[in-house]
Amino acid sequence: MGLKSVKVVRVGHRYVRDYRTLTHLCLVSRALGVEAVYLEEVEKDLEETVADVNRTWGGGFAVLPGKWKKVFEDAKAEGRTVVHLTMYGSPLQDKISELRKKRSFLIAVGGPKVPPEVYKMADYNIAVTSQPHSEIAALAITVHDIQKGEELKKVFGDYRLRIIPSARGKQVEQKP
Amino acid sequence: MGLKSVKVVRVGHRYVRDYRTLTHLCLVSRALGVEAVYLEEVEKDLEETVADVNRTWGGGFAVLPGKWKKVFEDAKAEGRTVVHLTMYGSPLQDKISELRKKRSFLIAVGGPKVPPEVYKMADYNIAVTSQPHSEIAALAITVHDIQKGEELKKVFGDYRLRIIPSARGKQVEQKP
């Protein structure tokens, strides 16, 4: 299958307003084969939600604490291409062929209050449409295009429950 | 460009917990060229947020009240293909060629409490991975794949602000 290595960093967040959004961001990242999400602070209940999903559905997805600048620097030192998602950036469809030539990525998602340095330090500032919407959708489409849809086939090891896809209804396999 | 016609329906919701998620769902739909989202109830502040985004950034995206069953029936009467997104369904990648042959769609997003009839009445039950994540990401990837990425190029008419894509920084054109 040969998925590219992708990590994600969230630049800044306000916990109280953002708990559900952060949970979605983490679960989408996990489901699409992202290895880890870095957050400025990892709150206990988010950590537990993610650990619980890993235990039930498998895989080794991680949520880790990390300030964006340090995470950017480490990623660059590792040879990762740093992609900052912003509605102000270059259209994804204009850069996707170039991005697909890279081996590994750090994708930064933020919001309106992202410091200007983020735009400067990123290798690419990429827009998934120039319209306001959701960093979760922007991330999902970016990972999907970078991985050419191969991420949808990812198999998660060491699960307790696994869904058997079906045209109607719900079929779940439970490990004995 | 020739975008296919896509509408979205949210099956059930609990407003208090879901306000941000619903807003994201609507804004993602709008940004990806969906014509309308149907919700069981359209709360005033969500309606205002969407109206404000339309006024500022253009286009005629609508949020409309509608119970899922009636919306399904009307869509079918119009010849729309009804696609229900669920982690239990058939993998998107197995059905995408078939879906791309259809002209117009109603995409239903729900959650764990979706009534069994939704699975029966939908023409397709489709999974964007069989992992738990986010209906926003699932919707984004489904629309992106159905439209073959053409939705990212949509131009919104009658805007007050428009972003000029740029590699670094923010460039916004304001209508006089």
Topology readout:
2 copies of one chain form a homodimer.
Chain A: E1 5-10, H1 15-31, E2 36-39, H2 44-57, E3 62-65, H3 68-77, E4 81-91, H4 92-100, E5 104-109, H5 116-121, E6 124-127, H6 135-146, E7 161-163, E8 172-174
Parallel strand pairs in A: 1-2, 1-5, 2-3, 4-5, 4-6
Antiparallel strand pairs in A: 7-8
Which range best describes the helical content of chain A: under 10%, 10-25%, 25-40%, 40-55%, 55-70% or over 70%?
Answer: 25-40%
Instruction: Give the spatial strand order of the biggest sheet of chain A.
Output: 3-2-1-5-4-6
Shape summary of chain A: globular
Radius of gyration of chain A, rounded?
16 Å
Number of helices of chain A: 6
Distance between the termini of chain A: 28 Å
Strand and helix order of chain A: EHEHEHEHEHEHEE
Structural class of chain A: alpha/beta
Quaternary structure type? homodimer
The fraction of residues assigned to DSSP E strands of chain A is 15-25%
The largest β sheet of chain A comes out as: 6 strands, parallel
Mean pLDDT of chain A: 94
Tell me which protein chains meet in the greatest interface and how many residues each side has: A-B, 55 and 56 residues
Q: Count the beta strands of chain A.
A: 8
Uncertain runs of chain A: none
Give the gist of this structure.
The first copy, chain A, is an alpha/beta fold. Chain A is built from 6 helices and 8 strands, in the order βαβαβαβαβαβαββ.
